[in-house]
Amino acid sequence: MADITLHRDNEFQRTVVPNYFIDAYMVHANGEYVKVYLYLLRCMNDPSMTFSISDVADKFDHTEKDIIRALKYWEKMHLLRLEFDEGKELTGICFLDAASTPTPQIPSISMQAKKASAPEVPPRENYTAAELRRLTEEAEIKELLFVAEHYVGHPLNATEMNAILYWKEALHFSGDLIDYLIESCVAKGHKSVHYMEKVALSWAKAGISTVTAAKEEANRHNELNTAVRKAFGISGRDFVPYEKEYINTWKKEYGFSTEIISAACERTIRTIHQASFEYADSILKSWKKHNVASLQDIKALDALHQEKAAAAQSRKETGAKKNRFNDFPQRSYDTSQLEKELLKYGTN
């Protein structure tokens, strides 16, 4: 592939980004943290721009805590120094020369890939009564709690408020995503915030951070459930928890598509004439072991199995022909008696 030349056809105001940031830091950092750092550089290169935590939070639709968290990350990476006054208010941000600071311990790209595939979910920390009062005075959080109370049909207790704040502050769910989470759970008949939190954690582990992604996941899940019901002939009831666990395992752990899972369920019915998640699981485990990734792979595996079965039957039949003489009834003789008889006839 030919090299690509970067060029411009006009002069424009520019923000200089250090190469060391792109080469050593950017690829490993959270994308939202990178945005904050680049915006800081932009403000640094334009004296006419004002900077405040609240302004940056509004610009990127984040909370002020999100912005502070990003700044502290870059301080930990030795790219910034945060300056505070006696009242612990942030008063200055100093850009540091990475060449003159200690090299941070940055995980390898392979480790980053593993983390990306399985995002770490922070543990829930309960807020004190004072913290709850302070946080619930924020306009966005106040609105979230109001919406939640409307859906669940009762005033929220401290445990329920803690859960919603956990989704917002620790899991970094947007207000829209939390609204959709609560609405979709209630629509399915689940008003328990404990149930909603299970869904929230599954979204966080799957890297779902937008309403669009959550809806796509829900559609995929509904499509799979419908396919399994159809293949097993199940109607008039929802799946029980252990059945849901099997379906989640087939999709997320085994990584099979809806059509392959449907094929395993259909084969279960043809073989044992009843819906059995255990039997379907044994089929899918075997297919996973043989690296099945498509319906064509299943056909090829079936053909190979038939060939082996035919060869085994052929060997069995050949062995039976070779030993056919053993099928005749065998006679036993008394040799001493035969000698007497021969001698008797010989003297006549």
Question: How much strand?
Answer: under 5%
Individual helix count? 16
Order of helices and strands: HHHHEEHHHHHHHHHHHH
The helical percent reads 55-70%
- The global form is elongated
Question: Taking strands numbered 1, 2, ... along the chain, how are they ordered across the largest sheet?
Answer: 1-2
First-to-last CA distance = 110 Å
The mean pLDDT is 80
Rg computed from alpha carbons, rounded to a whole number of angstroms: 35 Å
Q: How many β strands by DSSP?
A: 2
The residue ranges in which pLDDT falls below 50 over 5 or more consecutive positions are: 105-118
Q: Major beta sheet, specifics? A: 2 strands, antiparallel
What structural category do the secondary elements indicate?
mainly alpha
Short description:
Helices cover 61% and strands 3% of the residues.
Could you walk me through the main structural features you see in this protein, from its secondary elements to its overall organization?
This protein has 348 residues and is mostly helical. It is 61% helix and 3% strand. It has helices spanning 19-25, 31-44, 53-60, 64-76, 109-117, 129-135, 139-152, 158-169, 175-187, 193-205, 211-232, 241-253, 258-272, 277-289, 295-322, 335-347, and strands at 80-84, 90-95. Strands 1-2 form a two-stranded antiparallel ribbon. The longest helix is centred in the last third of the chain and has 28 residues, at 295-322. 16% of the residues are buried.
